[in-house]
Design goal:
Blueprint: E1 3-8, H1 10-13, H2 20-31, E2 36-42, H3 46-59, E3 62-66, H4 77-85, E4 89-91, H5 93-104, E5 119-121, E6 125-127, E7 136-141, E8 144-149, H6 153-171, E9 177-186, H7 190-196, E10 209-216, E11 219-228, H8 231-249, E12 253-256, H9 261-271, E13 276-281, H10 286-291, E14 301-307, H11 310-317, H12 327-341, E15 345-353, E16 363-371, E17 376-384, H13 387-406
């Protein structure tokens, strides 16, 4: 099946917005065995869009168009799609009612220009958008089936998974059930994980299980794509392979499928009726920001203290003696904030930066401590790679240490990203 992705918008074409939607679409299709043959980026120009649609309709079997479904004058996808298909635009009364209800539930009056979003090519099939006002649609242009999607990422993600991928699989003639199993890990690099999982596909000799990776520091996603006659067949094939992945990656697996590291931590704390306080330097509150906004965190997250240096941190916590960037300093900060917040658990993250300019060999020392009423666990690590790399690593390392502590796993296990 020949698939093309067309991304529209002057802001995408000029680089003012990073085109993350293209990579998401391509990766999601790849997960289901659907490979993209062409990728095109087009600005908000009628003639250029029309040529791009017609060219794609001549060479592709399916085309996903992203963007251009908004209410403003530079949103041209419906108009140009209708022109390319040789049909007129008609008002979809059902979608118009959906939009009016969308605004009414938010105590707002729908602006007149939003009506444009319900004007669709006469031959279009509506693709539902449960989280926005931009109506997706599908229609034929040339020999290709076109799928038009909104540019807002969360709207695109829902539409792609729920509306478009099933239609593409059906159109491609795939009769088997395809299932994606994901493992999220921290502390292990892609090449290391690949070596640990060598030969794992052979556990299912018919070749219906494919292993893949997606590295997005600080995490690594390990993917298993499984094909079977039905879901029961998929589950039988998946069982020995996922068991082997869990055994080989072991403590590095922090979550599976749609779960997240912070979600796993919150669930563990909630399950035991525990509460949490956080003290952090250099990370700018990003440890707390991963946990505090989650649903249910209001009963768990007690307090967060963010400081730029140890002097500020000590003053905020009312610690008279000087703190140091070492394990005793992190342990003292964790113990004090736990008592002050009345929390069952506390996490302290102290990061001492190297001297010098931001560069690949620039890094810092990370001291982490987790305090409860009866014990304190701590670990030290050094990470190089520049300020952003260090900040991301420190946040992930701290949260992963807390996850390990809650799950009874070793907190100080060596990771691939630290310099010894």
């Amino acid at each position: 099946m020949q698939i093309e992705i067309i991304c529209t918008g002057d802001e995408v074409l000029t680089g003012k917005i990073v085109n993350s939607n293209f990579s998401h679409i391509a990766q999601k299709l790849e997960d289901f065995g659907l490979s993209v043959r062409w990728g095109t980026t087009v600005g908000d120009d009628r003639e250029t869009l029309l040529r791009a649609f017609r060219m794609a309709g001549e060479r592709a079997d399916a085309v996903i168009v992203n963007g251009g479904l908004g209410p403003t004058v530079d949103d041209l996808s419906q108009e140009i799609a209708a022109q390319a298909a040789g049909v007129g635009l008609v008002l979809d009364e059902g979608w118009l009612a959906r939009m009016e209800d969308f605004f009414a539930k938010r105590s707002r009056v729908m602006p007149p220009n939003n009506r444009k979003q319900a004007m669709l090519p006469a031959t279009a099939e509506v693709l539902d958008n449960p989280v926005g006002t931009a109506c997706g649609f599908a229609l034929d242009i040339g020999k290709a089936r076109f799928f038009f999607t909104p540019g807002v990422p969360r709207e695109l993600h829902r539409m792609l998974e729920e509306q478009i991928v099933p239609r593409l699989l059906k159109r491609s003639g795939v009769s088997a059930v395809i299932h994606l199993k994901r493992f999220h890990s921290y502390g292990i690099g892609e090449s290391h994980a690949d070596a640990l999982l060598e030969g794992i596909e052979a556990l299912v000799p018919d070749g219906s299980v494919k292993l893949g990776f997606r590295a997005h520091y600080p995490q690594l996603e390990t993917k298993l794509v499984v094909r079977g006659a039905d879901m029961g067949d998929v589950e039988r094939k998946l069982a020995p392979v996922q068991a082997a992945v869990r055994a080989r990656l072991g403590n590095f697996i922090l979550a599976e499928d749609g779960d997240t590291l912070e979600g796993v931590i919150l669930a563990a704390l909630t399950g035991r009726g525990a509460t949490l306080a956080v003290a952090e330097t250099f990370t700018g509150g990003q440890v707390a920001a991963r946990l505090a906004p989650l649903r249910g965190a209001e009963t768990v997250f007690r307090r967060g203290v963010v400081a730029r240096d140890l002097g500020q941190l000590a003053a905020s916590l009312g610690i008279a003696e000087a703190l140091a960037y070492d394990l005793p300093g992190a342990e003292a900060a964790a113990a004090v904030i736990r008592r002050q917040a009345g929390a069952s658990h506390a996490l302290a993250v102290l990061v001492e930066l190297d001297e010098g300019a931001d560069r690949l060999d620039f890094g810092g020392t990370i001291c982490i401590a987790i305090a409860t009423e009866h014990e304190v666990a701590s670990r030290r690590a050094r990470i190089l790679g520049g300020r952003d790399w260090l900040r991301l690593g420190a946040v992930e390392l701290a949260l992963d240490c807390l996850r390990r502590h809650l799950q009874g796993l070793p907190v100080a296990e060596r990771i691939d990203f630290e310099k010894v």
